[in-house]
Amino acid sequence: MTTAQSRSKSGHPRLGKYWDSLKFALYCMTHPLDGFWDLTHEKRGTMAAANTILILSLVVRILKLRYTSFIVMQVYWEDLNIFLYLASILLPLGLWVIGNWALTTLFDGKGRLGQVYMATCYALTPYPLIQFPLMILSNGFTKDEMQFYSVLSMLSLIYTVILIITAMGQIHEYGVGKNLLFTVATLFAMLVMIFLMMIFFSMISQGVSYFISLAREMLFRM
Q1: What does the alpha-carbon distance between residue 42 and residue 35 come to, in Å, rounded to a whole number?
Q2: Residue 110, exposed/middle/buried by CB under 10 A (0-12, 13-18, 19+)?
Q3: Which of 42, 61, 60, 40 is nearest to 50 (CA)?
Q4: Which of 113, 178, 210, 218 counts the highest number of beta carbons within 10 A?
């Protein structure tokens, strides 16, 4: 058997598993209780598919800036920082994953850090699937029809939030009440982490400013 043949045979199963796990996101979206249980407990999900869904969400968020009707979204490009714009998704997602995993680990949560991340990314599926066609359709809407756009856009976000909460309950094997309690606790933990990060960066900024002033004073005396 040649090297090329062995590569092709070893590559197809991995590619097939990737596509199956990516398509499984649609099942999770329509059957969240069974879907998110199977995602981790039956190993139906993959990190590659989770990363793909996250990347698609980021791409759609960027495309919305350029291709959404100006009636809905007015973008001032000179004031836009694309990295900060992407951070508006990545930072909350990272804080959610870390905060949820840290809290649930202390209270018999079954999900591991990677599983919390994977399930959260899978729960983002409605965002690109709904927002992308809405973005295109928005250019054909009149001003009076933009309320229809706003309602569907809000529903996609609400649907995504519901899927995230459902996913956490399934992977940690929590009941409804306990899952909602830890959802609120995770949001509070996110606020605490943001506060600590602000203090940390403030201290770093003050420290750097002090050493810069000290260096300038030394240079001036020399």
Answers
A1: 10
A2: middle
A3: 40
A4: 178
Q: Which two tokens stand for residue 33?
A: 């209780």
Q: Indicate whether 17 pLDDT > 90.
A: no
Q: What is the mean pLDDT of residues 34-50?
A: 90
Closest CA to 189 of 109, 82, 97: 97
Is the CB of residue 184 less than 8 Å from the CB of residue 100?
A: no
Give the distance, in angstroms, between the CA of residue 58 and the centroid of all CA atoms in the same chain: 8
Going from the C-alpha of 63 to that of each of 22, 93, 124, 153, 156, the distances in angstroms are: 22, 20, 17, 15, 17
Report yes or no: 139 and 73 within 8 Å, Cβ to Cβ: no
Residue whose token pair is 């809000």: 154
Residue 127's pLDDT band (cuts 50, 70, 90): very high
> Model-level pTM?
0.82
| Short-list 150, 121, 2, 3, CA closest to 53 | 121
